[in-house]
Write a structure and sequence with these properties.
It is a single chain. This protein has a 6-stranded mixed sheet, sandwiched between helices. The radius of gyration is 25 Å and the shape is globular. Helix 1 packs antiparallel against helix 2. The longest helix is centred in the C-terminal third of the chain and has 36 residues. About 5% of the residues have low confidence. The chain contains 16 helices and 6 strands. By secondary structure, it is an alpha/beta fold. 56% of the residues lie in helices and 8% in strands.
Length: 393
């Protein structure tokens, strides 16, 4: 019900010749989709790496003024919200470690306001403790989802490599995972889900698996909120984001078509250009191709920023502006012809308005579709370059 598309309401408004109401319905739907709240609780004992995980998930450097404070001692004594910098509807909540409070697990959940959280991530830097298990059991009673994250895996692998005569990365990871699972089972947790993660290298180990399970277990209307906020760490996430953006294009194009019903010279093209710029900027941020995200990727992978920028071959690699969008339109004979036709058709009585709306819908759909494809391809090339893969494939 919460994810219901407003097709029937829009159709009804158009039957009543109420284009203004139809525009409002489309805009309301798009705004609602962009503002679906997602609240993720992060908890664990002192020094487990909670804050570093919060920062990595949000794509924020630990030294950034927007970052959750990190350190070897407990730095979180109260429930602290950290909104995503690009998607403020998604909030990571850094909770005080249960071992640092005077509350038993059941009262701890009431203290932190468990009702508002969509799911919990319980983090540990080594074995999960009795407090972690008690908390998980209480969360389960409250019918909320939770996931165990074993952090700082990169530190463990480096230590194992230095101390083991015949080091094997996969076997070491397997032992760590098995140790965590068995420890939790001994404490009464049935079929525990444990994910091995390095907050400094999210593209390695189990972060992708964690993302897939969180996405699958969320209500359908909240999945895109998670997906857009997730760092672009692999090609599959790029494809998922592309599909989610693609699903919105029909409404974005419909909005343009309804504006085309107003017979004022040049109004539709002006509105379309502003809309095309706004939505294309959303795609660029979603794929992590904005300048801030690219710089962070360069810093974390030690690949020069100029090398990442060099593999972006579309016109959209530049700062998105009306001139850039016009350049993209000029590359498509179909889009150019549709926009030209729309301007002429709008002044033909009765049938001309319907034809203009159709042309407007088709032209905006075509341009947004092209922009989305271009940016998805650029995102794939940038990611492959960052990971040291062959970008010519």
């Amino acid at each position: 019900m919460e994810n219901q598309e407003p097709i029937e309401e829009i159709t009804e408004a158009l039957k009543n010749n109420d284009a203004a109401s139809a525009v409002a319905k489309v805009q309301e739907y798009l705004e609602k989709q962009d503002n679906i709240p997602l609240n993720i609780a992060i908890t664990g004992e002192s020094g487990s790496g909670k804050s570093t995980f919060v920062n990595a998930f949000r794509g924020v450097d630990n030294r950034d003024e927007r970052a959750a404070p990190t350190g070897c001692v407990e730095t979180t004594m109260e429930v602290t919200p950290y909104p995503h910098p690009n998607y403020p509807n998604v909030t990571m909540w850094d909770l005080p470690g249960i071992g640092t409070t005077n509350f038993p697990a059941s009262k701890y959940l009431k203290h932190v306001g468990f009702e508002k959280f969509d799911f919990f991530i319980i983090i540990s830097a080594d074995r999960f403790r009795e407090n972690d298990v008690k908390l998980a059991q209480e969360i389960q009673k409250m019918k909320k989802k939770f996931y165990f994250v074993r952090s700082k895996i990169d530190d463990n692998l480096r230590a194992a490599e230095r101390s083991q005569r015949e080091f094997n990365k996969e076997k070491t990871l397997g032992r760590i995972r098995q140790d965590c699972v068995q420890g939790l089972q001994k404490q009464g947790v049935e079929s525990p889900k444990v994910f091995l993660i390095s907050s400094f290298d999210l593209h390695l180990y189990d972060f992708q698996l964690l993302e897939e399970i969180m996405e699958r277990e969320l209500p359908a209307h909240k999945r895109n909120a998670l997906l857009f906020a997730i760092p672009t760490i692999n090609l599959e996430i790029i494809n998922k984001k592309k599909e989610a953006f693609q699903a919105k294009i029909k409404y974005q194009a419909l909005n343009s078509a309804l504006v085309a019903a107003v017979p004022i010279p040049g109004l539709s093209i002006v509105a379309d250009l502003g809309m095309l710029v706004a939505f294309t900027k959303q795609y660029k941020i979603g794929f992590g191709l904005d300048s801030e995200s690219l710089q962070k990727l360069a810093d974390s992978t030690h690949v020069p920023l100029s090398d990442l920028q060099a593999v972006m071959t579309s016109p959209l690699a530049a700062e998105i502006s009306k001139d850039v969008i016009i350049k993209v339109i000029s590359m498509s004979a179909v889009a150019t012809a549709l926009m030209a036709a729309e301007e002429g058709l709008r002044f033909i009585p009765l049938l001309g308005i319907v034809a203009a709306m159709s042309a407007s819908y088709a032209s905006v759909y075509k341009v947004l579709h092209d922009c989305l494809n271009m940016l998805a391809e650029d995102a794939q090339k940038v990611l492959m370059k960052a990971l040291g893969l062959n970008t010519s494939v």
